[in-house]
Amino acid sequence: MNQFICTKCKATYSLDEPRWKCDCGSTLDIEFEAVFDLVKIRQRKPTMWRYREAIPIQNDANIVSFAEGFTPLTEVNFDGKPVLMKQDQLFSTGSYKDRGASVLISKVKELGIKEVVEDSSGNAGSAISAYCAKADIECNIFVPEDTAVAKVAQIQLYGAKLNKTPGTREDTAKAVLKVAERVYYASHSWNPFFFQGTKTFAFEICEQLGWQSPDTVILPVGNGTLLLGAYIGFKELRQAGIIAKIPKIIAVQSENCAPLYRAFRENLAEIPTINKKETLAEGIAIAEPIRGKQIVATVKQSQGSFIAVSEPEIKESLKETCQKGYYIEPTAAATIAGIKKYLPQSNSAEVIVSVFTGHGLKTTEKMLKLLNY
Ligand SMILES: *Cc1c(COP(=O)(O)O)cnc(C)c1O
Ligand SMILES: [Zn+2]
Fold first, then answer.
1. Is the pLDDT of residue 96 over 90?
2. Any ligand 1 atom below 6 A from CB of 358
């Protein structure tokens, strides 16, 4: 049965309803039986839509796509050990958020919705704006006032309406909820269709490994849009009998904003209120992640754990990665710092996959600061 299901009260709703949360106020997941026809998949173009029967969009005519996905899985050495890096900085808008935006905006088109609202620290807003531009859907993006200028420019040049909100990222999230009472909320953290796109990250990795799952995946986490999506993807592949096991998930947070790391380490029943400090990893600096408990439970279920990384570690990892020829944004470097912390405890046979989440060209001002300009 294809339907929405509430993560808390288990109420169900039809996927044909324009809804993004449960009547009880909690987040929704999607129950959907993903189908994989490996012969068909192999014959299709190298995009995330090659897994067509595993994505809950009914009519092909509604697919909004830039032929995105199937990004390279490239071996990169860190501290002398090989890690397979998914190059998701290479998406059209410069981050993996295109995976989620492609499916979510396809669903918006399928529902016949003409206007959406979204809030973001930049990358999700850029992705939603680009796909709305392609689908001719009116788009309103709320960002914190300190958002990176390149992301602000990108959102506006795609033709979206930009609303700079005073205060913190959390203030922006609160401001948008008011508007979401009357305009469809194309949220990357609330809307479960976004995760139906980010799950293709797992499909591609397994296909690129010859339909095998890796042992370990190391992923950044703020709202968990990549982490939860990846888990859905691995789970669906295992349910379909294509892979034997779900990899261990190592989740990386910035020490300066690490509520999930703390909840995991201290075995807390609730996500703690934290004192958020500024961090180079702006894209994962989420103090109140809406799916926080779900993320911690998912990492536990995968037999994984959390790692927190410091500002000097992020900075060094950023420089090191750029010096290998991969130009990534500081948020993406937090993941690299996490890899470097994880590797000493890995074994030599372990297949480890991680990701470059965002392109360096998105944050030129921060890059110049690193060079002391
Ligand atoms: C969105 C994003 C992440 C992951 O953030 P979540 O809040 O967990 O979805 C990581 N890196 C970059 C560059 C991002 O844009
Ligand atoms: Zn509910």
1. yes
2. yes
